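Handout, section B. The chain below has 340 residues.
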Amino acid sequence: MVKVKAIFRKKNLSKSKVYRTIFGEELAAVNSAVVVTYGASANLFAAPIIHFGTEKQKEKYLKPIMSGDALGAIGITEPSAGSDAVGGMKSTAIKKGDVYVINGEKRYITNGSRADYILLYALTNPNAPKKHQGISAFIFPTDTPGFERVKDFDLAGRRGSVNSYLRFKNCEVPVENLVGYPEMENKGLKIMFSGLDGERCFTCSQYIGIARTAFEIAMKYANLRVQFQKRLREFEGISFKISEMYAKLEAGRLMMLRAARMLDDGLNATKEVAAAKFTCANNQMDIVLEAMQILGGIGYTKEFPLEQLLRDSKISQISAGTVEILKFLCQRELYKALKL
């Protein structure tokens, strides 16, 4: 581990979106829940503090996250705020003297009930002319009085990760816990959106990792399974499936890596990331389902992990931007480029 860290420092790879996607794919190929847990803490919680936090915040909160002594989470989604994360936000953080008093609820929070700290978004100016002008980000310690872990959701997939419903009732946090204190008050949207493309690009690696595992299982099975005195891969219908699965896997991976490279180069890659994410998500589902079809009856049992991969896959079309939202973003950026 020390050697790996030294290599990353020497080559400055830790900041590279390309290397993060490679890392994410390898983890997800084994277990996607591990990637989700890691991503929520090291990426979604830590990255905004790296870019916008004060030196004191970085020193106090990033060290335990990076060492693995603490776990982070991000708190955006609410019962009324899903795809419309800004317009539906109701949680408030009202300044009273040297503290902010936080009230509200957050839902579907990865690592929520286990987290030591939450990067929490709330309305600091509920009366702002436009809602996005009154949002701020806070570092919220979960040992704060008034914080309630309502429940952990019983998920269909990614069952190795925790996804929680949280409630905040008159929770007081010091003003110094405002991310980027004091300049970033009411500028939380900038913080929220700053890492969105990077987050979505990283999630693509999870989808590619899962799809790769399903593809490899199907390939091996089609090479070994004999029916009608032939291996399955010798039947045209199966051989075509294998080729199409490979093409979808590689197409998604190349779109992901291109988007990651653009982000590394400091370019606007919103449409590339959006297109990569919905393509990887949809292709992942197709590949897992085709793998299950190739295995036949045994693919529907727990003898092979395909049923788990299928359950782990569906959320990819929903979380971090639904495929519908991503398609809308993609076409919006296309028309914006044409200045129509």
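Note. Confidence is low (pLDDT under 50) at residues 1-8. Compare this with the example in section A.
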